[in-house]
Amino acid sequence: xxxxxxxxxxxxxxxxxxxxxxxxxxxxxxxxxxxxxxxxxxxxxxxxxxxxxxxxxxxxxxxxxxxxxxxxxxxxxxxxxxxxxxxxxxxxxxxxxxxxxxxxxxxxxxxxxxxxxxxxxxxxxxxxxxxxxxxxxxxxxxxxxxxxxxxxxxxxxxxxxxxxxxxxxxxxxxxxxxxxxxxxxxxxxxxxxxxxxxxxxxxxxxxxxxxxxxxxxxxxxxxxxxxxxxxxxxxxxxxxxxxxxxxxxxxxxxxxxxxxxxxxxxxxxxxxxxxxxxxxxxxxxxxxxxxxxxxxxxxxxxxxxxxxxxxxxxxxxxxxxxxxxxxxxxxxxxxxxxxxxxxxxxxxxxxxxxxxxxxxxxxxxxxxxxxxxxxxxxxxxxxxxxxxxxxxxxxxxxxxxxxxxxxxxxxxxxxxxxxxxxxxxxxxxxxxxxxxxxxxxxxxxxxxxxxxxx
Length: 454
Hints:
By secondary structure, this protein is mainly beta. It has helices at about 5-35, 115, 295-300, and strands at about 65-70, 70-80, 85-95, 105, 125, 130-135, 135-145, 150-160, 165-170, 175, 185-190, 190-195, 200-210, 215-220, 225, 230, 240, 250-260, 265-270, 280-285, 290, 305, 310-320, 325-340, 350-370, 375-395, 395-400, 400-420, 425-435, 440-454. It has an 8-stranded antiparallel β-barrel with strand order 20-23-24-25-26-28-29-30. Strands 3, 4, 5, 6, 8, 9 and 10 form a 7-stranded antiparallel beta sheet that branches.
């Protein structure tokens, strides 16, 4: 009888199985090791955007959208975070703050609709406010309170490695949901403001959803001007906005209403001048008195010289809210006649002369009261001319006439009070200095006249 040895056959099979297991373990070992030491999520890796904002991502896509369901506004919010290495799936725990003052699980946060997720798998609800997702984001449904009060939510994210073990759980992140009301401005009481005319700094706007929490402001190139007072009507369809009288600046502005959630509506407001320039002509009476020095007083006397006039043409090409800037050409004419006693005698001599001056000045003007009172400050250089100066002595003795030309400086100020549309009464004071060797006269000139605006 022939016996068969089965041990070599069993040994051979076990050997082949061992080789296969070894190869399989060698292949899986790196993955198993990586799964045990998977890179955890960190707080820096979480990137969640606040609820109910108008902020968009770099592609211009908002991170939320809304649907109205009866009295409630349903908000679909995308929560996303940075994906970790060798993570098999994520777990999101979502809770809301109840009216009783406790945190309760959100049990109906998933909106199962293919159009919402596309080719991505729909998250799975595991119970007790916990949702399972295979991607590093989840779209959840958040409901704002219909009475406008905020509703608080909080959530945390956990990652699971390839062995289905929890690798990391983030801290709870709180978010707040408000019922957003989009404002709408249909019209405003003014569309153009002229800075060189009297205007009302209170603007009335009409529209919808203009509520107590609506923030009004003027907007231009990211610059904002906020009102000093806001009054919203109870019907939420109109509001009165009062700005500081000097708040308006040149340019194209927008009267803007902004509601919570950064929802805005705006209408244009143009702030400008009626004319880009101003042209003034003034004529006045200008007596003069010489203030300095003793030699000047000896020749010209120390009293007031009553025969004088002032002429000025002012051109203002630069107009800003801080004032107007320009140039003026001024001319002054004086007839000097003085009788001066001769010392130690009963006789006297008489001085006759014509003094003319011309100055080109830098001018700054500021309306102290719009369309009523204008301040003028000017400073310039020019010339002073003495013409046909002669001395007359007793016994019909006369000196030779004298003519000369000297450098001169001017400084002064004035106030113009408007009495008609383009006519003002001008009251001013000028001081001049003429560089005349040994004399160096300083003149004080009060001015009273009229000013015409063209």
